[in-house]
Design brief:
heterotrimer; A alpha+beta; B alpha+beta; C mainly alpha; A: alpha+beta; Alpha-Beta Plaits; two-stranded antiparallel sheet; 11 strands; globular; C: mainly alpha; Formate dehydrogenase/DMSO reductase fold; 0% strand
């Protein structure tokens, strides 16, 4: 893994008032419990794959825990790494889409427009993190899970690509709530489901252009790295890990 | 009216064409019909063509038109992808090339259809296609017909006929 | 036969008899094989129907191998399409006299291979019913396609290529269509007359035709080279390991010509055998084409070796995962079979003069087609299977849907060709005539 190629202090938005959302994940705190995966599933109406589909490699998770093993048995050390969409500034998935189903919005989110997607799956091939998941069929939920769908998140039909949105519905809600109360969005107002669900508090989310925000503080420490940053994708997810 | 004469070889046909143009018949009024391309020597029955020029013009028009469309659409609804510039000559150059070539191809075929006369409504009458003879057809005034018939026979026509104008 | 061949002399008469004879009558074996191929095509259409109805998931593609056999076939067929246009254009531009019985057979391959290859991007779409969103047209959503996407480049390139090659096939067909009109009766004559758009054989028309064909040959050559480069850009513009390579464009073009020549040789064998065209498709043609095949075999080896050597020497760990899977790992059997098919077999059979018989040429052509299909497979699948993060690696296994559609496309090629030779003379009569007259 590389060091941080773009210092977090240099991340800027086009406009001063526009935030640039980012995340920092402290791998030294992560226990690999997968609470973030479950929280994400519940929040984002992600279809639940059957056993056979999962065995085939068709499970859908917007965030997954990659496990890497070091050493030989019995002296083995497991490293966990939650991998979600890295919301790259120069996202390789974006320009290859022929219909603009994925593009970079003003707040630095790599957004996915489900209705526009025709399913070429080129974006998924060009994502080095493999965080894009495809709806191979129309989604179904086993009872009674079909009764708990989140009304703030649209259901994606078959043949459409989807991926982590940084819980864009929560970002939207946070901004609207702040506006209704006549104040600015404060750090910590907005929490994606995975961040909220993390029992070890290993994840931080916020505005990278605000040097005081928790995410900027975390991303600025010496342990901070970016996943596959050497590819020049400029990810906005920072991983904090001890260098061995 | 038209005169039609049949020849068995290319040389005789060429001679007939030259004799007729010597007596003041416009070469544009002469046509030679054959079942396969006939190679006359240069200067006998040249047909001027603007095909290459028009193909280039068409290529430039279609190529630059499509490039302009691409630039317009990307400014009309600007969406940033992958940190690329909105109007990127690098990323759209392939399309510019392909549509330039498409313009050239369509231009060539269009000029082919026009210059061959295949698209024109009022065309001169044509003999049935025959593999064994070359048919020379010349448009002339009725008063000159006598003379041209003799001339055609002198240059080796197997037989000649008169064809009245269809219109 | 008597209805078609009017009184004519010598070779001109003979070519008409020989070339027009296959257009008459339908033999039992013709109908039987047409039925067989149609069944395969219907099976493929059924599979595609299933895929549209149930969802793209009935195919075997899965994460991380999002592109499977459909894209393999797409690249393969677009490669085959280089048979015609490229070969016939090169031979036309260099004025190689021996091309004349070969060009139309080659150009027809191009058109059919493009029709088949062009279907695959559609078959592979998750929501094929929305494919028209890739086409730039003014719409109420105010959205245009993303012209920066290699898929849109691809679409434009293939559109230009198919337009160009259909016209390139059609233009020299016009005089023959006029001749067919005068040699047949009733509705057939009317159809041929209509298709010949009023060709009378005047010198103006011949002039325009020959000029147009010269220009078209030059342009189609440029388009053909660009099309396969653009197909390779679908891969090389990405940052996936062993796809992101500058050698891909010329590598794909060379591979396309290689497989195209092999396809042309096979089709010529079939024409020679089933249509009795041995007098026109002579050993000379097969030998000339086999020399071209041998040349392309060496070019292929050169490109392949350059590609693999660079990756191996660079020893970059992400790329080496793909390299190892290809050369030593789970895809190694395919890899070494490909090397045998694309290099060893043709090189030995065609390189040693004593072995270069017609049978050996046919064997080499089949081997090259298999090898080139495998090459496309080895380019598409291992890279996706072994992407940058080892935690996301995963295998691929094609399902019956993909296999049925793949089989159907080969059947479709055969079927299209069988129908074509029943409607149009497969050897350009007037070009052949011209040749005979000149000699």
């Amino acid at each position: 893994m590389s060091d941080q190629l773009v210092p977090v202090s240099e991340i800027q938005s086009a406009d001063d008032n526009v935030p640039r959302w980012g995340m920092a994940i402290d791998l030294d705190r992560c226990t690999g419990c997968e609470a973030c995966v479950v929280a994400c599933h519940v929040e984002n109406n992600i279809p639940i794959a059957t056993e056979d589909d999962a065995a085939m490699g068709r499970s859908s998770h917007w965030i997954r825990i990659d496990r890497y093993y070091e050493g030989t048995f019995p002296d083995i050390k497991v490293k966990y790494r939650p991998v979600l969409c890295q919301q790259c500034d120069d996202a390789p998935c974006e320009p290859v889409c022929p219909v603009y189903a994925t593009y970079q919005n003003a707040e630095g989110l790599n957004v996915q427009v489900y209705n526009r997607c025709v399913g070429t799956r080129y974006c998924a091939n060009n994502c080095p993190y493999q965080v894009r998941v495809f709806n191979w069929f129309d989604p179904e939920w086993p009872e009674p899970l079909d009764l708990q769908l989140n009304p703030d998140v649209s259901i994606r039909p078959g043949g459409v690509m989807e991926k982590c949105t940084f819980c864009v519905q929560r970002i939207q809600r946070g901004k609207l709530d702040a506006q209704a109360e006549g104040r600015k969005v404060e750090d910590g107002d907005i929490q994606p489901a995975c961040v909220q669900g993390c029992p070890a508090e290993a994840m931080a989310f916020g505005d990278l252009t605000d040097p005081e925000s928790k995410v900027s503080q975390w991303a600025g420490v010496g342990r901070s790295t970016q996943l596959l940053g050497e590819l020049g994708t400029k990810p906005k997810v920072f991983y904090l890990e001890k260098s061995d | 009216m038209y005169l039609r004469a049949e020849f068995s070889d290319v040389e005789a046909t060429a001679a007939a064409v030259q004799m007729m143009s010597g007596t003041g018949v416009d070469k544009r009024d002469i046509e030679v019909f054959s079942a396969r391309p006939v190679a006359f020597e240069r200067g006998i029955l040249d047909r001027s063509s603007r095909m290459s020029l028009l193909a280039v013009v068409s290529a430039i028009v279609v190529g630059s038109g499509s490039t302009a469309l691409m630039f317009y659409t990307q400014l009309d609804y600007p969406l940033v992808t992958g940190g690329m510039p909105l109007n990127s000559g690098w990323a759209t150059g392939v399309i510019t090339f392909e549509l330039t070539m498409l313009g050239a191809i369509l231009g060539t075929v269009g000029v082919f259809l026009w210059e061959s006369g295949l698209l024109r409504k009022n065309r001169s009458p044509a003999p049935a296609i025959r593999d064994d003879v070359l048919t020379l057809q010349v448009r002339c005034d009725p008063e000159r017909a006598e003379r041209l018939v003799r001339l055609l026979a002198d240059s080796g026509a197997i037989q000649s006929t008169r064809v009245e104008d269809a219109s | 036969m008597t209805t078609l061949a009017k009184a004519l002399n010598g070779p001109h008469r003979r070519v008409r008899e020989d070339v027009l004879h296959p257009l008459e009558g339908l033999s039992f074996w013709y109908l039987a094989s047409a039925a067989f191929f149609s069944a395969l095509v219907v099976g493929a259409l059924f599979s595609w129907g299933c895929q549209i109805f149930w969802g793209i998931g009935v195919a075997g593609i899965r994460r991380p191998v999002f592109w499977g056999l459909y894209i393999v076939n797409f690249v393969f067929w677009i490669g085959i399409s280089h048979a015609g246009t490229l070969i016939s254009a090169i031979l036309r531009l260099t004025d190689a006299g021996w091309r004349k019985p070969v060009t139309r057979a080659a150009e027809a391959i191009t058109v059919f291979a493009l029709m088949i290859g062009g279907m695959f991007p559609l078959i592979h779409l998750g929501r094929v019913w929305l494919f028209y969103w890739l086409i730039p047209y003014p719409n109420d959503r105010l959205l245009w396609p993303n012209f920066r996407s290699p898929l849109v480049w691809d679409m434009t390139a293939i559109f230009t290529y198919i337009t160009g090659s259909v016209l390139y096939l059609y233009l020299p067909l016009i005089p023959d269509l006029a001749e067919m009109a005068s040699r047949s009766q009733g509705w057939k004559s009317r159809v041929y007359r209509l298709l010949s758009i009023g060709w009378t054989g005047s010198d103006r028309q011949w002039h325009a035709l020959e000029r147009a064909m010269k220009l078209m040959a030059a342009m189609i050559l440029a388009v053909a080279v660009s099309v396969h480069s653009v197909v390779s850009y679908d891969f090389s513009m990405s940052i996936a390991p062993m796809w992101h390579s500058t050698i891909f464009a010329p590598y794909f073009v060379a591979g396309a010509i290689f497989s195209g020549i092999a396809a042309l040789i096979l089709v010529m064998f079939a024409l020679r055998k089933f249509l009795n065209l041995g007098r026109y498709l002579r050993p000379l043609h097969f030998h000339n084409l086999s020399k071209l095949l041998l040349l392309m075999c060496l070019v292929w080896l050169y490109f392949s070796a350059s590609e693999h050597l660079t990756v191996w020497y660079g020893n970059e760990h992400i790329e080496m995962a793909v390299f190892n899977a290809r050369v030593y790992g789970e895809y190694a059997p395919y890899f070494w079979l490909m090397v045998a098919c694309n290099f060893l077999i043709p090189f030995i059979l065609l390189g040693i003069r004593r072995l270069r018989t017609l049978g050996a040429i046919a064997v080499s052509a089949v081997a090259v087609l298999i090898g080139m299909w495998l090459e496309r497979f080895l380019i598409v699948i291992p890279t996706l299977s072994y992407s940058a993060l080892p935690a996301a690696w995963g295998p691929y296994e094609a399902s019956w849907v993909e296999l049925s559609i793949t089989a159907g496309t080969f059947a479709a090629m055969a079927l299209f060709y069988m129908i074509f030779v029943k409607i149009f003379p497969i050897i350009a009569i007037w070009e052949y005539d011209e040749d005979v007259s000149a000699s």
